[in-house]
Design brief:
It is a single chain. This protein is 23% helix and 32% strand. It is an alpha+beta fold. It folds into three domains: 3-136, Protein Transport Mog1p, Chain A; 147-320, Alpha-Beta Complex (2-enoyl-CoA Hydratase, Chain A, domain 1), CATH 3.90.226; 347-467, Nuclear Transport Factor 2, Chain: A, CATH 3.10.450.350. A seven-stranded antiparallel sheet has the order 3-4-5-9-8-7-6, sandwiched between helices. The longest helix is centred in the middle third of the chain and has 17 residues, at 262-278.
């Protein structure tokens, strides 16, 4: 599709556009359009001012929903900061989304004829996630960095051929358009590969399914190392393994595409269910996926992995858990670190509370923006229903590179409380970043030894290993 970042500077908005297909760009007052040569598919990008209290988004919603003799609405979703409408217009399908972001409203619309039914639906889905204020996008965005991205070796897209590991290929990063072609190149370069290591937040459903079928056809084993994660579309790849093991996090949720037609969504879901059945995935896993909303994530506990027999076959963990070049220990992030400084690794910071403190304030004084705290809050309160951390509590933050900014962002946040009588640090909550950019409840990360010197004087003692509830 040739997704390319396109900006409309006059209104300060930007979006990713399939320029290999929508080759004709036309700028006009208030927006820019991209169309096929024959005009049968068009994408519009617009920006509007949204002064505080103006009600501009509501006014635009009225316009979108106004009855018309040649337009029908088959789906609508109206929220205070986002409106999605789709349906038919003069025989063509259409999809429109308006998003309020501060003093700006970003509008994206896609209209397509029957000959572009599949591509139009995919473009609409992509537009829902990858459009916004121009300052959120870099011309050459920093890619999401994962723990296994620190491995030394030849890189082919998101895949890494680890040095001195001729039978291993690593997927480290999100699953984007072209991932299947990159895997074919990686397999050609490493024909004796038997195992695919996974550390990915997911991404494209279609590319994930293609990767999964290729893994199954090749008979590769799949492995998620401790402290790595495999979520959303990555889980399809994991389940395709002839032998498979997840010592790290494994998460699933519903497929999403706000406003995409029911028939298109059903077709994609049918492909997913057929693949999972082919890979002999337990029905309980499929049920967990179907009942977990797209903005949430069901992360399987160790007990669930055992009960559902998600791990199968034999995998030599000793040779795969920490290949040469991977970062194994903790690093304390400097406050002035940027994604460019640490693009090849994740960075973890441990904060210790010396007196009762609101965890939101602790985040704000340690590199979090108000928007990040707002996004994280619901997921934390669902596990730890208090705004305050007691003295001796720990906040453990895993930072990584952002794809739209040079500043590191929190991938995962965990809270622990310290019990003075037992000397134990007890895990209370973990939230993790999903491929949609939202934060959901996550599994407790690998246990570590917390330092004791940072505890309040009254709570002294030796270093203790974190323990789960």
């Amino acid at each position: 599709m040739g997704m390319q970042l396109e900006r409309f500077p006059q209104e300060g908005v930007a979006a990713y556009v399939p320029r290999n297909v929508l080759t004709v760009r036309t700028e006009g007052e208030g927006g820019v359009s991209f169309a096929t040569d024959d005009g049968s598919m068009v994408m519009y990008l617009t920006g509007y001012d949204n002064p505080a209290g103006s009600g501009s988004l509501e006014q635009r919603a009225v316009e979108l929903l106004r009855p018309s003799y040649n337009r029908t609405v088959t789906y609508k979703s109206i929220k205070p900061d986002r409106i999605v409408v789709s349906g038919r217009q003069a025989g063509d399908a259409y999809y429109s989304v308006l998003t309020a972001d501060g003093d700006k409203i970003i509008g994206v619309s896609v209209i397509w004829g029957n000959e572009y039914a599949s591509l139009g639906a995919i473009t609409a889905t992509f537009a829902a996630s990858y459009s916004g204020r121009a300052e959120y996008f870099e011309e050459n965005p920093t890619e999401v960095s994962t723990g296994l991205a620190a491995l030394e070796g030849e890189r082919i897209g998101r895949f890494i051929l680890p040095k001195d590991e001729p039978k291993v290929i690593v997927l480290a990063g999100d699953i984007a358009t072209g991932a299947m072609l990159d895997l074919r190149r990686a397999l050609k370069a490493r024909p004796d590969a038997t195992t695919l290591l996974l550390d990915s937040i997911g991404g494209s459903v279609n590319e994930g399914l293609l990767l999964a079928h290729a893994v199954a056809d090749r008979g590769l084993a799949t492995y998620v190392p401790a402290d790595a994660g495999c979520y959303s579309a990555c889980a399809y790849v994991f389940f395709a393994g002839k032998a498979r093991a997840a010592d790290g996090s494994l998460g699933v949720h519903q497929i999403y595409g706000d406003g995409v037609s029911v028939s298109d969504a059903q077709a994609v879901l049918s492909d997913v269910l057929d693949a999972l059945a082919e890979f002999d995935v337990p029905q309980a896993v499929i049920s967990a996926m179907l009942r977990t909303r797209p903005d949430q994530m069901h992360v399987f506990t160790d007990d669930e992995k055992d009960l559902l027999q998600l791990n199968r076959g034999s995998i030599d963990r000793a040779n795969l858990a920490a290949p040469e070049g991977a970062s194994g220990g903790l690093t304390v992030m400097r406050k002035n670190s940027t994604a460019e400084d640490l693009a090849s690794q994740r960075t973890e910071r441990i904060l210790t509370v010396r007196e009762p403190t609101k965890w939101a304030d602790l985040m704000l004084t340690n590199g979090f923006t108000a928007r990040m705290v707002e996004a994280i809050t619901p997921a934390i309160l669902g596990q730890y229903p208090s705004a305050t951390l007691p003295a001796g509590a720990r906040m453990r933050i895993l930072f990584g590179a952002s794809r739209t900014s040079e500043v590191l962002i929190p991938y995962r946040v965990s809270l622990y409380t310290h019990d003075q009588d037992s000397g134990e640090d007890r895990h209370m909550a973990t939230v993790a970043l999903t491929d949609r950019g939202s934060y959901v409840a996550g599994a407790e990360p690998r246990r570590i030894d917390f330092p004791t010197e940072d505890l309040p004087p009254s709570m002294g003692g030796k270093s203790n290993r974190a323990k789960s509830n």
